[in-house]
Recover the amino acids of this structure.
């Protein structure tokens, strides 16, 4: 009789332990339901590529005597930017099974970015972009992706567990241009949304990559209403509203959808504007001598997301949000002082120092 009782007791304990044994990454509440994991991880989804930046500004691509090889791609820039600032980040995307692809994976690793979600395509090359720098540091792009590996990421290749662990899931619009990456993007965002992950969207308009201006507008807006936070530039406002004034608050408010928590408008050296349901305003930027504006917007995004990942309640407190945006503006400003995106992304110490000097 005693052995039978012990067996029943053992099976009872085993029944209670099974959920934990099968889901070691989850904690369970008293009612047996999963509790939200305390995480500050930001997962960035999309393209990673090599930017070739001319060593002399103000020349056309054909006249540039040499180019500096610089790792880039907006979502990857944000992932590295967050890690440089002391945050936790991961990158999901696809590169070629080639020297550049392996180099990019290693760069993520060296910068403390989780690269477990990276995939390597044996039949396509890592994307390349040649960047023309005007004398004021502004850019024009020539892309080599026909198709490149990032366009070929498939839904079946997604690391869904990594996405579900995130506090914030960040993405752009370039991954929406072609299949199969478009379907992978939509599936990844749905998994994140269903898991209660905060969605961050930077359209990052690159018109030459789209079949037409109308397809770009339609593609960018197709996922607009699912994001919790959106970062756009003045040029993107004009583009999405078909030429309306990007400095008119009424125009900007047209882009504010009911589920949006924060809409940010970046204005380069002038700083940024912010819009929530409760308040709006402007935060001044830092004035610096621009060498290359590549990655400045991504550094800004890294700056704000690194802070939101630690404390989403910033969105309810205007004073704290303004401080966070001052920090993000400084991240963007410091990035334009060097050539290339990832090589120029600042550390938290450098940003804090720049802010102190500005106040001083």
């Amino acid at each position: 009789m005693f052995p039978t009782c012990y067996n029943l007791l053992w099976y009872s304990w085993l029944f209670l332990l099974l959920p934990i044994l099968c889901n070691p990454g989850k904690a369970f509440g008293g009612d047996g339901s999963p509790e939200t994991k305390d995480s500050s991880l930001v997962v960035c989804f999309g393209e990673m590529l090599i930017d070739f930046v001319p060593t002399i500004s103000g020349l056309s691509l054909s006249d540039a005597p040499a180019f500096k090889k610089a790792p880039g791609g907006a979502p990857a820039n944000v992932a590295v930017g967050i890690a440089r600032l002391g945050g936790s980040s991961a990158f999901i995307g696809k590169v070629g099974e080639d020297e550049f692809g392996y180099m990019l994976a290693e760069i993520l690793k060296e910068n403390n970015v989780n690269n477990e979600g990276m995939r390597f395509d044996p039949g396509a090359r890592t994307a390349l972009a040649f960047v023309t720098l005007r004398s004021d540091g502004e850019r024009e792009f020539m892309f080599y992706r026909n198709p490149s590996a990032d366009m070929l990421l498939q839904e079946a290749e997604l690391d869904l567990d990594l996405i579900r662990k995130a506090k914030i899931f960040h993405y752009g619009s370039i991954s929406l241009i072609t299949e199969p990456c478009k379907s992978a993007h939509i599936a990844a965002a749905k998994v994140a949304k269903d898991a209660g992950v905060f969605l961050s969207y930077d359209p990052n308009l690159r018109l030459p990559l789209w079949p037409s201006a109308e397809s770009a507008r339609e593609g960018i807006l197709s996922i607009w209403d699912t994001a919790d936070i959106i970062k756009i530039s003045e040029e993107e406002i004009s583009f999405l509203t078909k030429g309306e004034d990007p400095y008119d608050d009424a125009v900007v408010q047209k882009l504010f959808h009911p589920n949006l928590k924060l809409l940010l408008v970046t204005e380069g050296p002038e700083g940024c504007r912010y819009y929530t349901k409760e308040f709006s305003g402007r935060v001044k930027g830092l004035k610096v001598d621009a060498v290359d504006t590549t990655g400045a917007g991504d550094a800004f995004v890294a700056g704000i997301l690194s802070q939101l990942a630690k404390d989403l309640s910033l969105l309810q407190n205007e004073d704290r949000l303004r401080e966070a945006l001052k920090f993000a503006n400084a991240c963007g400003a410091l990035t334009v002082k060097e050539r290339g995106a990832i090589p120029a992304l600042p550390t938290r110490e450098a940003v804090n120092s720049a802010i102190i000097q500005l106040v001083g």
Q: What stands out?
A: Residues 179 and 290 are 37 Å apart (CA to CA). Confidence is low (pLDDT under 50) at residues 1-37. The two ends are 81 Å apart (CA to CA).
